[in-house]
Design brief:
This protein has 767 residues and is an alpha/beta fold. The chain has four domains: 14-201, no CATH class; 217-331, 2-Layer Sandwich (Beta-Lactamase); 341-500, Alpha-Beta Plaits (2-Layer Sandwich), CATH 3.30.70.270; 520-760, EAL domain (TIM Barrel). 54% of the residues lie in helices and 17% in strands. It has 29 helices and 21 strands. Bound molecules: ligand C2E and magnesium ion (2 copies). One magnesium ion is lined by residues 546, 601, 633, 663.
């Protein structure tokens, strides 16, 4: 049916097959028209004595029209481009052919009875010639040929039937049937021939395509495997790509060559599974990228291939092309790596950490376990960066990350969030003890000294941690909780670990509220000053008072300066508050005996103000206090901001005659360099060393000794802070400290109490 054009089977592109089938049709169409016309004229000649001329002429006209009809169909069908031919057009052509056949019925059915037996035999011969010729030439249109045969031979049978010549009727029938059968066979053979001719051309195309790809350099080698996937005819280029000898890979299964060492383990990479699958299903594939495990190196290959079959249709293996794409693949991997890793330290970056945390949280939800998130912030890192430069800072960070990485266990991932902030994701923290252990180990290990470019650097680490899902069910909330815990560790002076507690949220909230209250504290007159005596170590006479700020707020009560001063610094409130302290302290000090000085604490932020020196001058002149009676206390942090010109400001203050002390010496990032640059009047040794020395700690004793010796040689004085007991005072005196300040001699007291003191002891001696 398909060959006849009566039905399209489900499989195959029959429009296309038909186009191939009908390519031969046009070739003989002119010959067909001419033959028909010549035979038509012969028929007219035959019947010219029996049939009126006008009837013959009319018939010739009908024949001409019928012959013209297929040409129209032809033109409309677009068959001319030989690509796709719809069945509709084939049927139209068949109809046109049948029309010609019907026109040819007229001579044998209408004209022949008017003539004799000889004319009948002659016209049948003409029709037989037409049918035979049509069947032979129209094998591209078998249905047309068949109908042509059927119509004309039926007409012939009818004509001979009427004359009663039954033998001829039988002969014509046999002739017609045999002709139809052979015509059909012919058509089938013709189609098969055309199809295979086309197939060959297509194969040619595949080969030239492969060759072209090969020559254009996209492909590096040709490869071939047999039905059992073993490499055959391995080319030297193919062998080279695999890093082997051609003889070594000949006969080796392709998948084994690609899997390399993994072949034995059976643990094959996913790309190889895809390849195996294609080979098993005998499907062609193109540009399939596989990871090749060579003997000492891994490569990436891009393979394309199609299955091969022999003449009998038996599968004989695959043939294809391959190219080495290792380089481009590796750069693609590098880009992907860059997006997920921190370039400076090579640790996972924020993106990867949050993804890991997200996964850990989902696992906890599923398995009902506990995961952990630790935030780590380096203490005093900023000062290293500011004083020694970013290059040293970067190297330090690289060392920190190495140490951090060495602490990670199986289910833990550490990464860098940015700056000097690191984080750890723990997939399972068990009973919760593990998170504490890890945090403590991190603090311990990161706080050990670092050697960077001949500098020995001391930094510390603060850690805040939170448990999932308890302290947060999403990445954001858990990170915020850990951040709050970290904030608290920093607040407590660093070097500590805090677990998140719900109060921390309220703590953060409290800070916010406190900041609002602090903004109004000055105008509401909530600040007062307390004064703590400083005495001469040898004579125990009073030499100065340190002014210490006190804040009393109706809501928060008495707030420690250790708490609100950092807050004021963050909120940029410390400048107006500091100015108030300075004015107030000077006004108090003028009322004291002339040999008692006043020490005022000054924040780094105040010192960075361009008009700070003017403020000091104004406070002194307003109170009428001689500059020699004022001493400003600064900490090492004032030197930490690059380009702040703090040194210059300090020099100008010294030039006024105002004293300068270096407060809390030994607690910061002590670089002694600036001690020689700025001529401090006094170095104040921090309370922690005082306590240490009293306990007999050799380190503290050595430090105090060194400071005293250095101060002496530079013409500076020393004050020991926080002496609480007689024993401490004794030790400090022995160590050579010039002045002592501490609860042993007096706690910070109100201005009023100081005034009372001078009424009792006008000589201002103390002890
Ligand atoms: P600082 O300048 O080192 O002040 C000494 C601190 O040690 C004071 O705490 C004082 O009360 C305390 N102290 C003195 N002797 C002893 C002792 O024997 N034992 C103990 N345990 N503590 C002792 P305070 O008043 O809480 O001040 C804390 C810090 O707040 C000060 O440390 C200073 O850095 C800052 N501060 C205080 N007032 C001001 C101010 O007006 N401006 C600025 N910028 N900072 C201030
Ligand atoms: Mg002080
Ligand atoms: Mg101090």
């Amino acid at each position: 049916m398909a060959i006849l054009g009566l039905r399209d089977p489900a499989q195959g592109d029959w429009d296309h097959f038909r186009a191939i089938q009908y390519t031969g049709l046009a070739r003989y169409s002119n010959l067909r028209v001419v033959t028909n016309l010549v035979l038509g004229l012969m028929a007219c000649q035959l019947f010219s004595g029996y049939v009126p001329l006008w009837q013959l002429a009319g018939w010739m006209a009908m024949l001409g029209a019928a012959l013209y009809f297929p040409t129209i169909v032809y033109r409309q069908s677009g068959m001319v481009n030989h690509d796709h031919v719809a069945r509709r057009f084939v049927l139209q052509l068949v109809a046109a052919t049948s029309l010609i056949a019907f026109v040819w019925c007229i001579p044998i059915l209408v004209f022949a009875p008017l003539a004799g037996d000889l004319e009948l035999a002659t016209i049948w011969t003409i029709l037989a010639a037409l049918v035979v010729g049509g069947t032979l030439l129209l094998n591209a249109l078998p249905l047309g040929a068949f109908l042509f045969n059927l119509v004309l031979m039926s007409a012939s049978v009818v004509a001979y039937w009427q004359t009663g010549n039954m033998v001829t009727v039988g002969a014509i029938t046999c002739f017609s049937i045999l002709l139809a059968l052979s015509g059909f066979e012919n058509a089938r053979g013709y189609l098969m021939f055309k199809l295979s001719e086309h197939g060959l051309a297509e194969k040619d195309e595949v080969v030239s395509l492969l060759l072209r790809e090969f020559e254009e350099g996209d492909a590096d080698w040709l490869w071939q495997i047999d039905a059992s996937r073993r490499i055959v005819a391995a080319s030297p280029r193919f062998a080279y790509a695999a890093g082997r000898e051609a003889s070594a890979i000949e006969g080796m299964p392709l998948t084994q060559l690609i899997a390399g060492k993994l072949w034995e383990s059976g643990n094959l990479p996913p790309s190889l599974h895809i390849l195996s699958d294609k080979l098993t299903k005998r499907e062609s594939f193109s540009n399939l990228v596989v990871k090749v495990h060579g003997e000492d190196k891994t490569y990436w290959w891009e393979l394309s291939a199609s299955p091969r079959y022999d003449d009998n249709g038996t599968f004989t293996g695959f043939r294809g092309v391959g190219s080495d794409v290792t380089e481009s693949r590796e750069s693609a991997e590098k880009i992907a790596r860059l997006a997920r890793f921190d370039t400076l330290t090579g640790l996972p970056n924020r993106l990867q950490l949050t993804e890991a945390l997200d996964r850990a949280l989902k696992e906890c939800e599923q398995w009902n376990c506990r995961c952990g998130f630790l935030m780590i912030d380096l203490d005093r890192f900023k000062s290293v960066n500011d004083t020694l430069g970013h290059l040293v800072g970067d190297r330090l960070l690289a060392q920190v990350s190495l140490r951090l990485r060495s602490l990670m266990g199986k289910d833990e991932m550490c990464g860098r969030l940015g700056g000097d902030e690191f984080a750890v994701v723990m997939r399972d923290t068990g009973d919760g003890q593990r998170i504490k252990d890890v945090a403590e180990r991190i603090i311990d290990v990161l706080s050990r000294p670092y050697e960077v470019d001949q500098h020995t650097l001391f930094i510390g680490a603060s850690v805040g941690s939170a448990h999932g899902l308890r302290d947060g069910r999403t990445v954001e909330t858990l990170m915020r909780s850990a951040d709050l815990a970290l904030y608290r560790s920093k607040d407590e002076g660093g070097g500590r670990h805090n677990l998140y507690e719900p109060q921390l949220h309220s703590h953060a909230e409290e800070r916010r509220v406190m900041e609002i209250a602090l903004r109004k504290a000055l105008e509401k007159d909530e600040f007062t000053l307390a004064f703590q005596p400083v005495v001469d170590a040898a004579s125990e006479s009073l030499v100065a008072f340190e002014a210490l700020l006190r804040w009393h707020n109706p809501e928060f009560g008495q707030v420690s300066p250790a708490r609100f001063i950092p807050l004021a610094e963050d909120a940029r409130l410390v400048v107006p508050i500091g100015n108030w302290v300075l004015h107030r302290a000077c006004r108090e000090a003028v009322t004291w005996p002339a040999n008692v000085r006043v020490a005022v604490n000054v924040s780094a932020e105040q010192l960075y103000e361009p008009d700070f020196v003017d403020t000091v001058v104004e406070a002194l002149s307003e109170a009428g206090l001689p500059p020699q009676r004022l001493e400003l206390e600064v900490t090492e942090s004032v030197f930490l901001r690059e380009g702040s010109r703090a040194g210059e400001t300090l020099d100008r203050i010294l030039a006024l005659g105002v004293g300068l002390s270096l407060d809390d010496f030994g607690t910061g990032y002590s670089a002694l360099g600036y001690l020689s640059k700025t001529r401090f009047t006094t170095i104040k040794v921090d309370r922690s060393f005082v306590q240490g020395a009293a306990r007999g700690a050799q380190e503290s004793i050595a430090i105090i000794r060194a400071v005293v010796a250095m101060a002496d040689s530079l013409g500076m004085s020393t004050t020991a802070e926080g002496a609480e007991t007689e024993h401490e005072v004794k030790v400090l005196r022995e160590l050579g400290c010039k002045k002592i300040q501490g609860y042993f001699y007096g706690r910070p007291m109100s201005a009023h109490d100081v005034g009372e003191l001078f009424i009792d002891h006008p000589s201002a001696s103390y002890g």
